[in-house]
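README: folding subset

This subset contains proteins for which both the sequence and a predicted structure token string are available. Records are stored as plain text. Below is the entry for Ribosomal RNA small subunit methyltransferase G (217 residues), shown exactly as it appears on disk.
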Amino acid sequence: MGIESEVFGDALPVAERYAAFLADAGVERGLIGPREVDRLWERHLINCAVVAEAVPDKARVVDIGSGAGLPGIVLAIVRPDLSVTLLEPLLRRTTFLNECVELLELPNVEVRRARAEEVVQEFAMDVATARAVAPLERLAKWALPLLRPGGQLLALKGERAAVELEEAQPVLKRFGVRTAELLQVGRGKVDPPTTLVRVVAESAPRRAKGSRKKRSS
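--- output ---
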């Protein structure tokens, strides 16, 4: 448990309880595949925990399509200074997430059953995270309106990260984002390092240009 201890520090016992819950209830309810159990730490928990390297102190984070809580719950465990909202539209998943929050005693986590489009007027987050939710061109449309001016989207991506970033350029241009780049975190802790697409929102990222609804006459 060398790397696990290095990554999670004093929060390792909490991470271990979460891993056990994922391997049990997570598999039973179809949120984690049975074949993933043997690689929960390297492929899932550590892979998500190192995202914390890119998250500012005391940030308000929304985890879009949180599913089993990856990376949202992991970030809340490793970074108790964060305020994390797990945004998930499916009831069975929000039930699982609420059970996780109660089991792990995470006071810095809120579970919200909703789609991103339904909470645009309520949210002005510092960071939006997402893992295995949708291609970047779609994800950006959901995430960017949830951010405060200058907030950032951190999307965990695999080997197609560069391709997705290129394909998303038209959408990102419509939103007028400040920057969009590839970023690797977790070097020396997870192999290969976790790849993020980091998109920094413009000064007023409420919606893509040209997406306003026309008023009825």
